[in-house]
Design brief:
Layout: E1 5-10, E2 28-29, E3 32-33, H1 34-46, E4 50-54, H2 58-64, E5 72-74, H3 81-95, E6 99-104, H4 112-124, E7 129-135, E8 144-148, E9 151-155, H5 162-165, E10 171-180, H6 181-184, H7 204-211, E11 216-220, H8 233-253, E12 257-259, E13 264-266, E14 271-272, E15 277-279, E16 282-285, E17 289-290, E18 295-296, E19 300-303, E20 306-307, E21 312-313, E22 318-320, E23 323-324, E24 329-330, E25 334-336, E26 341-342, E27 347-355, E28 358-359, E29 364-372, E30 374-376, E31 381-382, E32 387-389, E33 399-401, E34 406-407, E35 412-414, E36 417-419, E37 424-425, E38 430-431, E39 440-441
Parallel strand pairs: 1-4, 1-6, 4-5, 7-11, 12-15, 13-16, 14-17, 15-18, 16-19, 17-20, 18-21, 19-22, 20-23, 21-24, 22-25, 23-26, 24-27, 25-27, 26-28, 27-29, 28-30, 29-31, 30-33, 31-34, 32-35, 33-36, 34-37, 35-38, 37-39
Antiparallel strand pairs: 2-3, 6-10, 7-10, 8-9
The protein binds uridine-diphosphate-N-acetylglucosamine and calcium ion.
Uridine-diphosphate-N-acetylglucosamine binds near residues 13, 142, 143, 174 and 231.
Length: about 450
């Protein structure tokens, strides 16, 4: 579909109204950068034919999207949306598309369905320049669509003059255009910057194409929320809320039991199986997956976490890049950092932190423990207050604990160290050398008891 059409995302602007040095298109909504959403929607329609114009902090955008390196066009100076298009023209010509679909990078609510409806209308009309218009009760900073007789123009908010342009109608420019390249190429040299912003406006192509006898079409999408642009923090959180509701509604439809649904935030890449129970407030971001039968109680944050079947995560846990296998139990108040793995039926309780560590099948660390760079065998019990001392100030070292071992409370295991299977470490020990299988190790001062005074 749409093989004749290449796509272009305009993402070079700074986003001055966001009051932040980072490029606006990297600001996240539900854990994904704004630019990710536009990429998804355009990729669904135009496959690999999507180019992105970058400029302000292009290095940061490139670092966030390394897979797009080949598809970036640099607009070194940001002199307006028309100037951004000009920067991409040589590349568009080289790729030989008949049309280019141009979308502002700050419209993350855009959907393939809505764009397809626009493309179909524009292609059917064989227009040279087509754009999406929407109706807003308050046109704010959007470009106004001005229709006078047969002609249609877009006038930017700053340049709008009611005595010249007539009373505002509420019809505004959404920032999505379908341009026939052969028709607009000769017009680009006529784009000027003699306006209130001193910028080259892509929107001026509408008037120029008409003056040149071309066919111009405004496709009115009514109150379609897909085109809301994000220019300020307030607009960002409003758009994020729209996305959030869309995703939560989808989960409920699919049979996920979402309690306190208004405070459940699930990113667009997360996947939750039907029948799972979620309770807000709750945040699931990145490539998090939650398998059937799992229960996630309130106040948990999961980022790129894999939750197996029938797992329960009690309240107040933070999991990032962690894997929890079937039947395991987490929390309350646990922290699973990158590389934490709980094998089947393992348990991690309150105030336990794990990093790059595996708890074997059915193993338990129930209270107040740090496991870093550790491998714990199946069925072992890690007593309260156990610390793997994995860092010597310069390097990280491994702790290996065999199956069925028992680590007494308040033990420090100074890595690198190996505790054999079924070994027992006495409470309060500092273990600095390996303990063989089945051995008892005590590494602490003997108790001395004397008469008082
Ligand atoms: C633009 C439209 C306006 C429309 C609105 C819809 C123009 C002149 N105006 O206004 O009619 O109602 O979008 O949201 O196009 N960008 C570049 N290079 C630049 C400048 C901007 O790549 O030199 C990118 C920005 O990163 C952004 C997009 O173009 O993603 C739109 O720019 P922005 O400054 O937000 O335009 P608006 O003022 O919102
Ligand atoms: Ca904008």
């Amino acid at each position: 579909m749409y093989e004749r059409i290449g796509a272009l995302i305009l993402a070079a602007g700074k986003g001055t109204r966001m009051k932040s040095d980072a490029p606006k298109v990297l600001k996240t909504l539900l854990g994904e950068p704004m630019l990710w959403y536009g990429q998804q929607a355009l990729h669904a329609l135009c496959g690999a034919r999507v180019l992105t114009v970058v400029g302000h902090r292009a290095d940061m955008v490139a670092a966030a999207f390394p897979q797009l390196a080949e598809r970036f066009v640099l607009q070194a100076e940001q002199r307006g949306t028309g100037h951004a298009l000009m920067a991409a023209m040589p590349r568009l010509a080289q790729e030989g598309h008949e049309y280019v679909l141009v979308v502002n990078g700050d419209a993350p609510l855009v959907t393939p369905e809505s764009l397809a409806a626009f493309l179909d209308a524009a292609l059917a009309a064989a227009s040279d320049v087509a754009f999406v218009s929407i109706e807003l009760p308050e046109p704010g900073a959007y470009g106004r669509v001005v229709r006078q007789g047969e002609t249609v123009r877009i006038v930017e908010a700053k340049d709008y003059d009611a005595s010249r342009d007539g009373p505002a109608t509420g019809e505004i420019n959404a920032g999505v255009y379908l341009l026939r390249l052969a028709a607009i190429a000769p017009l680009l040299s006529q784009l000027g910057n003699d306006n209130k912003s001193g910028e080259y406006y892509i929107t001026d192509l509408v008037g120029l194409a008409q003056a040149a006898g071309g066919k111009v079409l405004a496709v009115n999408r009514g109150d379609d929320p897909a085109y809301l642009g994000i220019n300020s923090p307030a607009e960002l959180v409003a758009a994020e809320e729209c996305l959030r509701r869309r995703i939560v509604a989808g989960l409920l439809d699919a049979g996920v039991l979402v309690r306190a649904a208004d405070s459940v935030r699930v990113g667009p890449r997360a996947s939750v199986a039907p029948g799972v129970e979620l309770c807000g407030p709750l945040e699931l971001y990145g490539a998090t997956t939650v398998a059937a039968g799992a229960i996630l109680r309130s106040h948990n944050v999961l980022i790129d976490a894999a939750i197996g079947e029938n797992v329960t995560v009690q309240s107040f846990c933070h999991l990032e890049n962690a894997r929890v296998a079937r039947g395991a139990q987490v929390g309350p108040y646990a922290r699973l950092r990158p590389g934490a793995v709980l094998e089947e039926d393992a348990r991690v309780g309150n105030f336990v932190e794990m990093k790059k560590s595996t708890l074997g099948k059915g193993a338990k660390a129930s209270h107040l423990t740090y496991l870093g760079d550790a491998e714990v065998g199946a069925g072992s019990n890690i007593g309260a207050g156990t610390i793997t001392c994995n860092y010597d100030g310069a390097h990280k070292h491994k702790t290996v604990i065999g199956e069925g071992a028992f680590i007494g409370s308040n033990s420090a295991l100074v890595a690198p160290v190996t505790i054999g299977a079924r070994a027992l470490v006495g409470a309060g020990s500092v273990i600095t050398s390996d303990v063989p299988e089945g051995a008892l190790a005590l590494g602490r001062g003997r108790q001395v008891t004397k008469p008082r005074n």
